Amino acid sequence: MSNFLKKLSDISNIHRRAAFSDLPERLPAKESTFQALAKERYSCRKFKDTPLTDVQINHILEAARLAPTAANKQPVHVWVVKSPEGLEKLKGATDYTYGAPVVFMVGAKPEAAWVRKYDGKNGAEIDAAIVGTHIMLEASALGLGNVWVGSFDPAKIKADFPETAGYEVVCMFPVGHAAVDTSTNHDKRQEMKEFASEI
User: Fold this and answer.
1) Fewer beta carbons within 10 Å, N or C terminal of the chain?
2) CA–CA gap between residue 100 and residue 98 (Å, rounded)
């Protein structure tokens, strides 16, 4: 590069710095509010017996209701299990309610879902998973512990909860005030170079 071009480049950089237009390049990227929430959220497996308020439950349900679904078909339903009788019945279908005062069950209706035309892939279960993710994150945003539970007996759920007829229960979420902190596994994540790549 000639001296003239170098000086021109230097002057250009001085102007950029004086105008603070290169500030984003000079400062480390700030963590977003969502990233902070995603980092803090963990799978809680022990809850206090403090009940959730109706306001807390309604906030979680609204976040779930606003979740995106394929073609906006919304082939999903959420059941809030909080009565002593309901929670006791759930214990017959899963060992993993962890003493939570409320369990949100998410069901999908395949016949109401979007279907991919190329191979017939049904989106109901994916939609239910997105709704479930909203439940977890909103609960965390409210300062509540939560955990995704996929280990349960579907036949027992159908038998003991006739309200779920016509739906496949995909996942459930015990939610409450956490009685334990994060586990030692919480911070174990793949390195970015292993997790993602450009093609």
Assistant:
1) C
2) 6
